Amino acid sequence: MNLKLQQVSAIKSGALQITGSKSETNRLLILQALYPNIKIENVSNSDDSVLMQRALASTDETVDIHHAGTAMRFLTAYFALKEGRKTTLTGSKRMQERPIKILVDALQQLGCDIQYEKEEGYPPINILGTKPEANKVELQANVSSQYISALMLMASSLPNGLEIALKGKVTSVPYINMTLSLLEDVGIKGAFKDNVITIPENKNDIDNTIVVESDWSSASYFYSIVALSQNAEITLGSYKKRSYQGDSSLATIYKNLGVETVFGDHTVTLKKNNITNYEALHGLDLSNSPDIAQTIAVTCFGLGISCYLTGLHTLKIKETDRLEALKTEIEKLGGEVEITEDSLRLAASNRMEKDILIGTYHDHRMAMAFAPLALRTSLSIEDADVVSKSYPDFWRDLEKLGFALG
Ligand SMILES: O=C(O)C1=C[C@@H](OP(=O)(O)O)[C@@H](O)[C@H](O)C1
Ligand SMILES: C=C(OP(=O)(O)O)C(=O)O
Fold first, then answer.
1. How far apart, in whole angstroms, are the C-alpha atoms of residue 316 and residue 247?
2. Same domain, residue pair 245 and 371
3. pLDDT tens per residue across span 139-189
4. What is the pLDDT of residue 274?
5. Rounded to whole angstroms, how far apart are CA atoms 105 and 160?
6. Which of 76, 180, 186, 187 is most buried by its number of CB atoms within 10 A?
7. Residues 146 and 269 in one domain
8. 191 and 227 part of one domain
9. Which atom of ligand 2 lies at the shortest distance from residue 144's CA?
10. Is 370 among the domain residues?
11. How large a percentage of the chain has pLDDT more than 90?
């Protein structure tokens, strides 16, 4: 379904409750599968978390996780270490193009039994669960942190825990720290020092209740809306100042784009002010928070300012090639974008075409990143339901703020 967004001149101030972080939820669901007395509150209602829950509950031999990257990676390690269980783990067409070799190699190093069903290095994979004796593994860390988190989440179930040595420049580091922090919250105290992660074996009962913080990547779209508005003020729950999510760097980044963040009791209020520092957008390294790159690029385009975003090497293997997709869609609207393998340069421009259909390429973040441009022009979003991968209530929440949809 294509969704038309009328141009809106002003939006209402409002308060929204954002669903739980899908990254935190999907880690905790794996830990709950290992330690069933763990309780999770503010569970994400994202498709990716629903798919994860279904996969963990399934007794079928074939498990299909559609587009969910974390589910694919975390479940590869989970099923590989589930002794005696035979699983074919598969996903959408795009998932079958997203690499998994680094993780499979690491699990094979440990002694796991995993075969590729079609193309080497890519899902679907056939897994026969084992309990390996080895407790050391080495893997390349510059492609996806999800491979590392997958091993960390399973490590405490191995007879001697696990030592994970990371090679190369480590990418998406906050997601590794998030895994470490959640493990610690349930009582498993690991360490990450000098590119070596150590997770001990756990023999204790675990019955903690963990409250998932709401999703910061989802909050990014409201940062963009406030930046593009005259004077909007939006309160979002439930957030905390000391977040496990690297995308909470939004507060610092959007300060440069005229958005002030005020932390309340479990909320953040985003307020428009006119204090900007656009220079900070020139050479902004997003290797710690890849999921907000699209939001930031589109905000800058909406503001008519230039930006140069770096550290984007992981964007090519996400739900789509996000660098290509951004270039194509911003250029349709009249912008000028140059991309390399790991960077995006947007030229300053006041051009903004009307009534363009924005392609979304099965990528929830393409739909959500472009929606705030309705504060500047009328546009349509292709396949608008794609947002449910991380944020099923997105369009309803935009309507609450006064966006005119349909
Ligand atoms: O571990 C996680 O929950 C995630 C890690 C990141 O992936 P990469 O480590 O592949 O960059 C991020 O893009 C993804 O949305 C969620
Ligand atoms: C990249 C993302 O998800 P995943 O890799 O888990 O599919 C995302 O949500 O932006």
1. 19
2. yes
3. 999 999 999 999 999 999 999 999 999 999 999 999 999 999 999 999 999
4. 85
5. 20
6. 76
7. no
8. no
9. 5
10. yes
11. 98
Is 368:387 a contact under the CB 8 Å cutoff? yes
Same domain flag for 181 and 219 = no
At 97-130, the pLDDT tens digits run 999 999 999 999 999 999 999 999 999 999 999 9
Nearest-CA residue for atom 7 of ligand 2: 69
The domain boundary residue, chosen from 211, 236, 266: 211
As a whole number of angstroms, the distance between CA 87 and CA 74 comes to: 14
Atom number, ligand 2, closest to the C-alpha of residue 389:
9
Closest ligand to 363 CA?
2
- Average pLDDT (247-260) is 98
Task: Tell me the average pLDDT of the chain.
Answer: 97
Q: Which residues does the annotation mark as catalytic?
A: 291
- Does residue 96 fall inside a structural domain? yes
Do 97 and 246 lie in one domain? The reply is no
Question: Which amino acid makes up residue 142?
Answer: N
3-state SS string for 340-354? CCCCEEECCCCCCCC
Domain membership of residue 405 (yes or no) is: no
Nearest to 291 by CA among 360, 218, 342: 218
Count of domains observed in the chain? 2
Give the CATH number for residue 370: 3.65.10.10
Work out the percent of the chain whose per-residue pLDDT is above 70: 100
Residue-number span of the structural domain to which 138 is assigned: 22-211
Cα-to-centroid distance, 92 and ligand 1 (Å): 18
Cβ neighbours of residue 66 under 8 Å, at least 6 residues apart?
Answer: 47, 51, 91, 92, 95
Tell me how long the chain is. Answer: 406
Q: Tell whether 177 and 222 lie within a shared domain.
A: no
Closest atom of ligand 2 to 71 CA is 6
Residues 240 and 385 in one domain: yes
CA 321 to ligand 1 center in whole angstroms: 15
- Ligand 2, pocket-test mutation among 27, 74, 175, 319, most atoms within 8 A of CB: 319
This prediction's pTM: 0.98
**Which of 171, 193, 211 is where one domain is finished?**
211
Whether residue 406 lies inside any domain: the answer is no
Query: Is 320 in the same domain as 337?
Result: yes
| 44 Cβ inside 6 Å of ligand 1 | no
Ligand 1 geometric centre to CA of 176 (Å): 9
Structure confidence at residue 12 as a pLDDT band (50, 70, 90): confident
Question: 286 to each of 174, 266, 374, how far by Cα in Å?
Answer: 11, 26, 25
